[in-house]
UniProtKB/TrEMBL annotation:
This is Regulator of protease activity HflC, stomatin/prohibitin superfamily. Keywords: Hydrolase, Membrane, Protease, Transmembrane, Transmembrane helix. Residues 299-400 are annotated as: Disordered. One of its GO terms (biological process) is proteolysis. Coiled coil: none annotated. PANTHER family: HYPERSENSITIVE-INDUCED RESPONSE PROTEIN 2, STOMATIN-LIKE PROTEIN 2, MITOCHONDRIAL. The keyword Hydrolase applies. Residues 27-186 form the Band domain. Gene3D superfamilies: Band 7 domain. InterPro entries: Band7/mec-2_domain (IPR050710), Band_7 (IPR001107), Band_7/SPFH_dom_sf (IPR036013). The lineage of its organism: Bacteria, Bacillati, Actinomycetota, Actinomycetes, Propionibacteriales.
Amino acid sequence: MFGLGTILTIVIIFVVLFLLFGGLRTSIFFQVHTQENVIVERFSKFLRVAGPGLNVKAPFIDALTKPISLRVQQLEVNIETKTKDNVFVTIPVAVQYVVDQHAVVDAYYKLSDPEDQIRSYVFDTVRSALSGLTLDTAFESKDDIANTVEQRLSQSMAEYGFRIVNTLVTDISPDQRVRDSMNAINAAQRERDAAQSLAQADKIKRVTQAEAEAESKRLQGEGVAAQRKAIASGIAEQYEMLRAAGIEGTAEQLLLMTQYFDTLQDVARNGRSNVLLLPSNPGALGDLSNEIRTSLLTSYESEQARRDGDARAQQEASRQRAADERAAAHEARQEAAYQAQSAQQRPQPAAAPTQPAPPHTRPAPAQYELPESAQQFTGRLPQRLQDQVNQFLQQRPPQV
């Protein structure tokens, strides 16, 4: 049978196998996954950082921390804040960050809750940025807000072992009533733009159509003018031919008859024509010609009579004005004579004895002055009549 030494050897082998494949195995060997790190502590003190793969630690004295992921992680933060124009908005911000592989120790020991710390920085940065922006400006500055948050987080979190990969401001959501108002404003603006575009298009259409119509009418006018010129030339040639043939007296009637039949031919060619020729009897064309000639002569005589009547009316008005002026002058002279005679018949105060005049002097002519009422009357007359009245008074002989 087995000796004592053999039995002891077998027991020792079983103990070693039990320790290797039992609890001692997990106390000595451990594995770390890819994109992860594990911190090994000895007596609760940092010892080293274990990388991916199979690692060994001292049993009973070394301890392992929770695996630290080196993958890119995303933190979503919903921030409710107020803009410069007092509009409350909700801004969802997504922060993508990763633990720096060379600063795993700082990332694990310096921050107890990295996500909460990042969230605090995002809140502070976004609220300070939106406080100086209006709602419309905030919509236009989403990228600027994201860059500001990313720069501040990168500077602040670098010393804690974290690296900010990207920061995204995904949306700016105002209150529902504000959104409804903004939608109404946008709808009104788009309707206004659409109305302006339609009006501009209609204007261009109308202008183009008017230009086309004007060009068409111009060309039609040129065509009609050329046609009438050709017709007039043809009529003149026909008239000369008729005169040369010795039928000058009936040339007009013959040409009128020819034009009449040409018109009937045009009317018959167009079945939908609504032209009615009066008179319809060709024999009445002579009467029609006489009526046209009589109408022209009557119109000329009426115009001449009107001009003669206007000339006679102007002459009569001139004669009436001259008669009125003569009557006013005669009345003024009579009034002046009457006023002068009344002034001479008034009693004169006793005059002082006159001194004999020197033999070589002549007495001055007597001056007549009108009373105040006569002067007021003559002052309203034309200047020519006033001069005639004064001349009449100076030519009167002195009254003794």
